[in-house]
Amino acid sequence: MEKNRKATENLLLDTVGKIVEGNGFSAIGVNAVAEQAGVSKILIYRYFGGLQGLIGAWVLKNNYWVEDTKDWEEDLALVPSEVSAIRNAMKEMFRAQWSSLKAEPLRRELLRWFIAEENPVSRKALEQIETRGREISLSFLERIETTEDIDAVNALLIGGSYYLSLIADRVDVFNGIPLSDPRGQERLYAAMDSILDRIPYTIKEEKDEN
Amino acid sequence: MEKNRKATENLLLDTVGKIVEGNGFSAIGVNAVAEQAGVSKILIYRYFGGLQGLIGAWVLKNNYWVEDTKDWEEDLALVPSEVSAIRNAMKEMFRAQWSSLKAEPLRRELLRWFIAEENPVSRKALEQIETRGREISLSFLERIETTEDIDAVNALLIGGSYYLSLIADRVDVFNGIPLSDPRGQERLYAAMDSILDRIPYTIKEEKDEN
DNA sequence: ATATAATGTTACCATGTGGTAACATGACGT
DNA sequence: ACGTCATGTTACCACATGGTAACATTATAT
């Protein structure tokens, strides 16, 4: 066999992903990862300081939330300063976030694990998600003006979309909405739009920089 | 020692609750439960057919969602048929559900487990929650008339309140809202009220029974 | 080319897990 | 009173887990 630390490190990291994807987070363990990677488990301790370190490195490496949402601010900068345009951008952003979570089972598995298990890794991951989400939120908020508590409304909507995505893997129906049926999903999108449409706000005046 | 099957069954069930409450769901196991109960683990197999059976029985016994919400329909029946009154009842119902979930850590731990782990027990429990929630929803819907997709809106709001309750044990802030701060919670309640206030609907006409 | 340190393997240990067999003891009907 | 069956305990097994020591091998710098 060839000897190459970086390569085997990546092999181990990838194996973590495969196991989580295939059998869920509970299937992860030093023995399982090492065996499936075809490598000695002691390397996990040597290179990552243990299982916790390995998982931490893996989560960090594939920090989906942070990566996938990279260019929202740029897109928003191109949107004209009209209420309807910004409103639509906001609705689109929510929809896009939701549907990307819907499309990636691994990310849902990850999020479920972050919520269920309390440990430094999941804590840090949740903080990162919050930080990134906050940036996106603010990029919208700095362009509009309102008496409404948009942060609170958005927290509810984001939380709702997360929750419904997470349990869609477990149950077929929630509050009478068929979660796996495209029509059910469309109803939820429409409901979100309708809520967002009813929030009154105006465009914030442009300020000179001085 | 005295010999009494019912008593030791209850002892085992209670012990499950204590362990979950103290150390979370991951701490549960045949050995742990038996030891903490001060009883032989083989009784778990004899009386419950194994750990799964024990947990299932425990979940069933303390089906919080079903129990605690018993009298919502009765209360609603006393509410006069005016839009504002029913609207307020609905807002109160949401608030009450949310705050009771906030007040009971065990229930949150339970819900987290239902979502994270996929097995017959959690599946059934989620179904029960859905069934019960549906009853409450319908008791409202049958008294009002609207073009809005109230089920979808409610699914979002309920999901949102669940999600925020669950991660409040893990992070301090979500989308800029301080979840453990009473003022943060009040903002969320207000946002929910505001959303519900904007849904247009009218009272459904009373029908004779024939 | 060869010493040396990094990389990797094998084999093992202690511990904890779910699960069962064999035995002890108490409750209860007759 | 006493036999009998449900109830309970002790002791054990097989297995998987995290973790480590001792050894083998390859890369690489000099």
Strand portion of chain A:
under 5%
Number of domains of chain A: 2
Largest interface, per-chain counts?
Answer: A-B, 52 and 51 residues
Low-confidence stretches of chain A: none
Number of helices of chain A: 11
Distance between the termini of chain A: 64 Å
What is the chain-wise order of helices and strands of chain A? Answer: HHHHHHHHHEHEEHE
Strand order of the largest sheet of chain A: 1-4
Question: In a nutshell, what does this entry contain?
Answer:
Two copies of one chain form a homodimer. Chain A is mainly alpha-helical and 210 residues long.
Notes on the protein architecture:
- 2 copies of one chain form a homodimer.
- In chain A, 70% of the residues lie in helices and 4% in strands.
- Chain A has 210 residues and is mainly alpha-helical.
- Chain A folds into 2 domains: 2-58, Orthogonal Bundle (Arc Repressor Mutant, subunit A), CATH 1.10.10; 64-203.
- Chain A has a two-stranded antiparallel sheet.
- In chain A, helix 1 crosses helix 4 (51-61), helix 3 (42-48) crosses helix 4 and helix 8 (105-116) crosses helix 9 (120-141).
- The longest helix of chain A has 22 residues, at 120-141.
- The first copy, chain A, starts with a helix and ends in a 7-residue tail after the last strand.
- The interface between A and B is large, with 52 and 51 residues.
- Chain A binds a DNA duplex (30 and 30 nucleotides) through helix 3.
Features:
homodimer; 210 residues; mainly alpha; Arc Repressor Mutant, subunit A; 2 domains; two-stranded antiparallel ribbon; DNA-binding
